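Thread: Newbie trying to understand structure tokens

Hi all, I'm a second-year student working on a class project, and my supervisor (Dr. K.) asked me to get a predicted structure for one chain before our next meeting. I've only ever worked with sequences, so writing a 3D structure as a token string is new to me. If someone could post the tokens and maybe explain what I'm looking at, I'd be very grateful. Here's the chain:
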Amino acid sequence: MTDTTADPATQARAAHPPADWRSLPAGQQPRWPDPAARDEAVAALTASLPLVVPRECDRLTGRLAAVTRGEAFLVQGGDCAESLDAVDAGALGRSASLLQQLATVLGYATALPTVTVARLAGQYAKPRSAPTEVRDGVELPVYRGDAVNGHAFTAADRTPDPHRMLRVYHASAATLNLVRAYGSGEHADPAYALECVLRFARASPERARHAELAAEIERAGGFTGADGWYIPGELFTSHEGLLLDYESALTRVDPVTGRAYATSGHLLWIGERTRQLDGAHVAYFSRISNPIAVKVGPTVTGDELLRLIDRLSPQGEPGRLTLVTRMGADRVRAALPALVERVTTEGRQVAWVCDPMHGNTVTAPSGHKTRRFDDVLAELTAFLDVLRGLGAHPGGVHLELTGDDVTECVGVGVADDALAARYRSVCDPRLNPDQSLDLAFRVTEYLTARRPARAVRGIE
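---
Reply by user tm_fold:
Sure, no problem. This is what the structure looks like when written as tokens:
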């Protein structure tokens, strides 16, 4: 018999099914041209097996509770938008390995264990600023990610197709299988991640700058599991829970606890464009028991943020809610302090994480959408300064990155005129491995210059 009486948060999420979002305004949803086809796709998803299980989601909640308490650091990253035509085991392994390399460096930087979460196995839908796109006088629906339509600028590709959600489900299942296989392979070994970090430092144009720090990381290497930087092979999945038809269809009630979970991924987040208090996304997210996150831009007010926290995490459970700030390098120092002060003063239990990517997108002279490495670094270090200056814990970093050698962001070996060489993203630009590791090294330099003697702590 299911017992949901002991835990008020469990009671609240069991009493109201996630389906109540359907009566509320839902932003950024596609206009499916064939409602019958949508119903058919949703029915097929509803009958499908879950992609993740409640026990895994609860484990991540526990890890993020440590982040909330200041006892761990989150390293989250991956593709801007996954492609249905590019489920590649090699590319996945390179990106997963890169996250563990970043965990190695940032674990040393923070003297804390790291929690690794990938943007994959579900990151197939993207919010857009306009519903249509015009090229040479032709207007078509905007590309909303492979879960909705195709990237090619043709009427056939750009027509929203709900059966793509089924393809996303199967691609995500395949990706999760690869992730789990990766976790038991030799490339998930911390020694391999450390060797990759040292190889980067030796080959980097900044090797004279990085050599001493790399040697320190090597001397301190070997900390894993309960004794150090990360648990080998433990890689959780995450994506923006944008398509409510997809998320709702994959929601399952745990027969043991009676709580509802989004089984499409371990952690889901609400984007900056869909965090309206009276909107469908907030209603749906308030009813699932996964760890969740919200993107927070520079225009949010303290009152609005508190109401959002209370709606999504009314019991204040550590690990339940992560706030991912995405302010822009030129606005973070002005906008963030008041929010942190207000949330801290009011005693809300949340994790603070920095997304230094989305507030710093610009258009290069070539016309490519890009981000400048220096802006990404500036926002991240400003975030660290603000949180530490206010006595709060800077809980982690959220990056768009890839393990492939792309040329999408400017800096660390990529000039403006080189962007076209290997620009592969169908949406936003990603950091390549050298840029990602250079960022981690510079953040480590920044933090180690500002901290007392280090002592590594583990996750319980």
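A couple of things are worth pointing out once you decode it. The chain has one domain: 8-19+54-125+162-448. The first strand starts at residue 73 and ends at 78. Feel free to ask follow-ups in this thread.
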